[in-house]
Design a protein that fits this description.
By secondary structure, the protein is α+β, with helices and mostly antiparallel strands. It has helices at residues 2-9, 23-33, 54-69, 75-86, 106-126, 137-140, 142-147, and strands at residues 16-17, 45-51, 90-96, 130-134, 155-165. The N and C termini lie far apart (42 Å). The structure holds flavin mononucleotide.
């Protein structure tokens, strides 16, 4: 029951301060990622930890990629993008090592990476920390991906920003079950 309460109380937290999980607590969180279901046991997950001074180097990489995408990018936009990667105490880049020579399709391998990310989020919450999963133009930029060690077909499923919630956990209204669950009793009329 305690586990279900943990799952039901998780929320994304975007305002994060020190400390981030580290040591054995962080190892436990990362181990949870590797417990995701994984068709073919391909173990496509690869987590890159960015913390401390490395955050500035990631911000530099993001800035270089942004300037390449948009040579006219205004300084406030550059500063905003840099800030996203400078502020979180810990960023986990969600690397996906994708096999194209295997009968398990890349989509399923990405689903395993996504399931791993969800396990990380739940484990972070269960450990008393906060996190949010983000993607966006930087995550999909091949320059950023390559700078983190991922070249196609390997890719990034985004970033987890991780730390301690600055203002507690936000109140979130969740969708009602009735709108998302039906009991199938035979063919559904879709026309
Ligand atoms: C694959 C993926 C990518 C996401 N990318 C972003 C993003 O770039 N920016 C953002 O604000 N939220 C993004 N989100 C949504 C947040 O992670 C989060 O789910 C959302 O704010 C709802 O909060 P909740 O997790 O408490 O329901 C993404 C979610 C997923 C699953």
């Amino acid at each position: 029951m305690a586990a279900l309460e943990t799952l039901l109380s998780r929320v994304s937290v975007s305002s994060l301060v020190e400390p981030a999980p580290e040591g054995a607590v962080l190892d436990g969180i990362l181990e949870a990622g590797l417990r995701a279901p994984d068709h073919g046991r391909l173990a496509p997950w690869h987590y890159v930890l960015i913390r401390g001074d490395a955050r500035r180097r990631l911000a530099d990489l993001v800035e270089t990629a942004l300037r390449a995408r948009d040579p006219e990018a205004p300084q406030p936009l550059i500063d905003k993008q840099r800030g996203k990667f400078l502020r979180p105490p810990l960023t986990i880049a969600l690397g996906a090592r994708i096999r194209t020579d295997h009968k398990v399709p890349p989509l399923e391998q990405m689903l395993a990476v996504g399931a791993g990310a969800m396990n990380l989020l739940n484990a972070i919450h269960a450990s008393g920390f906060g996190a949010i999963w983000v993607t966006g133009a930087n995550a999909y930029d091949p320059r950023v991906q390559a700078g983190l060690g991922f070249v196609a077909p390997d890719t990034l499923a985004g970033f987890l920003f991780v730390g301690t919630p600055a203002h507690g956990l936000p109140e979130v209204t969740r969708p009602a079950l009735a709108g998302h669950v039906t009991e199938w009793a035979g063919l559904v009329e879709t026309a």
